[in-house]
Amino acid sequence: MAGTELATFELAQALRELGHEVGVFSPFLGRFAFLQAWKNQIPVFSLGDSLALKKFNPDVIHLQHWPNHLLLDEMGIHAPRLFHFHGASAPLESPPRIKGYCPPWIAVSDITFSSVAEDSGWDAKAGSRISKWGASESDYGRSVQPLVTDVKLKNVLVVSNHFPALYSEWVIRAGRELGFNASFIGEGNKVKPVTDTLLVHFDAVVSLGRTAVQSATLGIPTLLLDHLGLDGWVTPLNYKDLESTGFSGSYLKDTGFSYENLLNMFRNPPTPQDLAEVALIFKKSHSLAVIAKQIETHLKLASTQQQDFTFERSAYVAANYITQLWLTENRKFAMRKIVQRVIQRRLIRNFYELSTNAYN
Q1: H or E element, residue 247
Q2: I need a labelling partner for 73 at 20 to 30 A (CA). Which of 53, 198, 213, 335 fits?
């Protein structure tokens, strides 16, 4: 479960709570997608589901990553699009140029907005800036109680799918020196949902992006550290700077820091007053409920536009490559895919039956 998977289903549920009928598309559907779809009765679609998608008949498509636009276009799904860009440099965040037209798009940070508007040639006037959200099971309904005494680190949680081995060694070493225990969740370690219930058992969280937003909202000391570098603790003084890069750990670009730098960070966590102030800022500006309403506004605007896309050939080559990967995986795991298809179509059929009965 990486950021894209979590963001997709969180947003799907939030938009449905606002009264919209929502489906999820991905060229690859894994266990997480099927569990979320079954649990929340959200229909899921993939390559090969052209008929089911046409029956679903979307009014507008919210794209987490641009290649899905091309895949859906080849499947005959031509509803207006809203492009959503999360990162600044990853291949899936580098949209192809569009000749003579720019569709509406949104970006989650200043650096992402600049990357799309300037480097990719997309019209900045068609783009909008939104904030990163960090949803949890309570959607920030939990009241954050300011600490009375200074922070004492006894249990520190590291959440990452790409945490460098050297940094892991340093965190563990710092724990031995300062007397705290370090736990790790993510690729290469234990994998489990990161919920409020889990986070509140720790005295500090080391992460970035969505998890950093979530832990900071709960009033937990949050250290931005990952493969992109060390940005330090999130405080009221550096909040705007860190938010400008989507809490990605790339603001300072401090990838050459020493163990002594990191050790000093752990020695000096934020004050209780800083934590309380940061929590209020995040609760007001980064909750899923707030961001979902902003995205809803952009989706409504996009749905009313006539959109005519003409991508460069390189984009179609990329989409074809993804299609070939999908076909290869299908051949490799043919029986598993057949079982998943049966479950998926049954889920979609049940969803329509439930929706029809509820409407009637």
Answers
A1: none
A2: 335
